[in-house]
Design goal:
Elements lengths: L2 H17 L9 H4 L13 H19 L11 H17 L1 H38 L3 H13 L14 H8 L3 E5 L2 E5 L2 H10 L9 H7 L4 H23 L6 H19 L11 E4 L11 E2 L7
Parallel strand pairs: 1-3
Antiparallel strand pairs: 1-2, 2-4
Helix pairs in contact: 1-11, 3-10, 3-11, 4-5, 5-7, 5-11
Length: 299
């Protein structure tokens, strides 16, 4: 049991004790016999409690988990097994999921900032330099640059967002050498290869990345509504001086921690199946790549 769950359990014990009548006045059994309550539906069965907690936990974990792009050699069974493993981990050790999501959040922000600083500054310098040249000379230079093989990534570079950073760290850019997949590029490798002119700068917009994502507003809304309805039920029972079970308090604690990870992953694409292809242009072959043969770790 985690620290937050233990605190929640302690608070629940106090809540139940406060809701119990004095032992000198009546029996404990009368506390759970709510037939005298103004609300006739206040009595719940074990099945009702398990169903409510189970749906809430499933909705929160299934929506919150944002896995990385699977490797090209991974099958459907491996992908599903990894997803189930992460869901179980989110239920048992939700703090681990928050740590993982926090690490990815700061890594994505750093990657976006690094690309914007590198190629955004080049684009500004290119624009300022071309603005001082006459129109005829600028046209001539643009014709020459189009015929040249030298890459100009900053000319059409658009600012990277957190979505780009997440996409890069989740295995979103696949290096192809001679028309075959070679490896998944990390943001550092992609930046170095673009800087050296070995590959072209990937011109993919945030809208295109979100189009690859399987997450939509409806699934998010359903999960949030289920969690909100669960919280409203707990608050209503507390207001009516009715006891709540330890399972419900534990479910609320896990759901709250899951929402923290969900917030950190809000800009991360969900369940992307295929990466963006980056073609190798140099004569030699790349070496010392982090992920060879399109193998992607989940960490």
């Amino acid at each position: 049991m985690t620290l937050l769950q233990a605190c929640a359990a302690h608070a629940h014990i106090q809540l139940v004790c406060a809701s119990l009548p004095s032992l000198n006045d009546t029996s404990i059994i009368h506390t759970f016999d709510t037939s005298d309550s103004p609300c006739s539906n206040s009595t719940r069965t074990l099945w009702n409690i398990l169903l409510s907690c189970g749906l809430t936990l499933f909705a929160c974990t299934w929506t919150a988990i944002h896995t990385n792009i699977p490797g090209m050699d991974e099958g459907r069974v491996a992908i599903t097994s990894r997803r189930l493993f992460l869901m179980v981990a989110a239920l048992i050790v939700p703090e681990l999921m928050i740590t993982w999501a926090t690490r990815q959040f700061f890594s994505a922000r750093a990657a976006a900032k690094e690309f914007n600083n590198e190629f955004g500054a080049q684009r500004t310098q290119t624009y300022d330099r071309d603005r001082d040249i006459s129109e005829g000379t600028a046209t001539l230079l643009s014709d020459i640059s189009r015929g040249s093989s030298t890459p100009r990534p900053a000319a059409e570079f658009k600012e990277w967002t957190m979505t780009h950073g997440f996409f890069a760290w989740m295995g979103g850019f696949m290096l192809y050498v001679d028309g075959k997949p070679r490896a998944t590029l990390t943001p550092d490798e992609l930046l170095q290869f673009v800087r050296d002119g070995y590959v072209d700068m990937p011109l993919i917009s945030e809208a295109e990345i979100e189009d690859r994502s399987k997450g939509d507003g409806l699934s998010k809304a359903i999960a949030l509504l289920q969690l909100a309805w669960f919280v409203v039920q707990l608050v209503a029972r507390y207001g009516q001086n009715l006891p709540n079970t330890l399972l419900e308090i534990d479910t609320l604690a896990v759901a709250a921690l899951t929402c923290v990870a969900y917030g950190l992953w809000w800009k991360k694409p969900k369940d992307v199946g295929c990466p963006y292809i980056v073609h190798w242009k140099a004569t030699g072959t790349p070496r010392r790549l982090t992920y060879r043969h399109a193998i992607i770790s989940i960490a």
